[in-house]
Recover the amino acids of this structure.
């Protein structure tokens, strides 16, 4: 595996820490900003909205630009957004900085995914994308718990400053080790043909639904564990780290399985995630809930490489835009999940309702995945007949 792929994964660690650390900071941020926990949870959705809008637009806008320089500019904007966010006095300004940071993050993901795919042969795409997405996994193991711990002891603003500092380290790594490449040979019109393919939309729909299933529950894990299951607040960083450890196990195994059996991998991970959500919905025992969080991390991130591999399989000759489109689809889920979880909480259904919301989304994912499988088998039979 080229060293540059690992450097890009390291960069994703910094971005992923910022995207996910809000989960562990919800109570403190809500109190400091004078807003409700569901409103604070919308900061996660704000980031996701920026990713959804930014990924395709920035992918097309930067299609023929030098990739390393583009990555460096986007990381610079990300740093600046976190500095302003750390200094923000009110919710509105902080909300705006989350959108700006997300736009930069979206552009980075699109360019980094295209660079990663270009650096490896076709039969190693699953493993390469597992390394890139592995940055998110490490963020959940180390970055998110560290940000939560820092936020609990030094305030949430300190966590934002820490992300800015780690991102500067990523800037140095990209500048030194990622080779300069361009997309001169790529056709914008050819890339846009991606959206004419129904199988692509099915693949993106499965991504969005599965990710919404995960984030409907993950976004509210801290209050679910402390308010419903009686877990001490001081344990939350450790439990989030456990979720990240499960995610590392899942993405490692999923990366090895995805290139050979993407559908089987997706069905297995989806079933395991639904079982974990059912436990979280029903239990009030903190130890049982913690075990379910570990399984949920394994299943949720285990599906990730297969989702990416499936998208690239059906995308054909649109490597840049499919990377941006999958990024957007993941973040449609990141937006939809926290919003639906917040709706359930605001409706007075209690924190366990976020797990039930995840289960409903998981059933929808199962239906969409089955449709995608049927369509693929039908297309394969037609090609054999011809």
């Amino acid at each position: 595996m080229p060293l540059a792929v690992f450097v890009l994964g390291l960069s994703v660690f910094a971005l992923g820490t910022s995207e996910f650390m809000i989960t562990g900071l919800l109570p403190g941020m809500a109190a400091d900003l004078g807003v409700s926990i569901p409103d604070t949870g919308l900061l996660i959705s704000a980031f996701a909205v920026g990713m959804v809008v930014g990924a395709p637009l920035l992918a097309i806008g930067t299609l023929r630009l030098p990739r390393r320089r583009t990555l460096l500019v986007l990381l610079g904007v990300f740093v600046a957004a976190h500095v302003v966010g750390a200094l923000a006095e009110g919710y509105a300004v902080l909300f705006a900085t989350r959108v700006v940071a997300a736009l930069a993050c979206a552009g980075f993901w699109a360019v980094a995914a295209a660079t990663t795919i270009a650096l490896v042969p076709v039969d190693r795409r699953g493993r390469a994308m597992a390394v890139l997405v592995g940055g998110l996994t490490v963020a959940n193991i180390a970055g998110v718990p560290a940000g939560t711990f820092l936020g609990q002891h030094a305030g949430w603003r300190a966590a934002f400053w820490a992300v800015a500092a780690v991102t500067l380290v990523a800037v140095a790594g990209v500048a030194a080790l990622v080779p300069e490449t361009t997309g001169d040979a790529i056709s914008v019109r050819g890339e846009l043909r991606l959206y004419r393919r129904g199988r692509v939309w099915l693949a993106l729909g499965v991504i969005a639904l599965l990710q919404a299933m995960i984030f409907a529950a993950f976004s509210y894990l801290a209050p679910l564990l402390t308010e419903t299951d009686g877990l001490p607040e001081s344990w939350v960083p450790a439990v989030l780290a456990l979720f990240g450890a499960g995610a590392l196990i899942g993405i490692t195994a999923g990366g090895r399985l995805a290139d050979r059996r993407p559908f089987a991998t997706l069905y297995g991970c989806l079933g395991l995630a639904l079982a974990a959500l059912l436990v979280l919905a029903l239990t009030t025992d903190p130890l049982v809930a913690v075990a379910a969080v570990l399984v949920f991390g394994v299943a949720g991130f285990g599906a990730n490489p297969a989702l990416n591999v499936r998208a690239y399989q059906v995308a054909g000759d649109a490597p840049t835009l499919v990377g941006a489109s999958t990024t957007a689809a993941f973040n449609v889920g990141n937006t939809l999940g926290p919003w639906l979880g917040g709706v359930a909480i605001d409706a007075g259904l209690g924190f366990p309702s976020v797990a039930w919301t995840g289960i409903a989304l998981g059933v929808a994912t199962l239906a969409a995945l089955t449709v995608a499988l049927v369509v693929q088998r039908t297309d394969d039979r037609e090609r054999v007949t011809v």
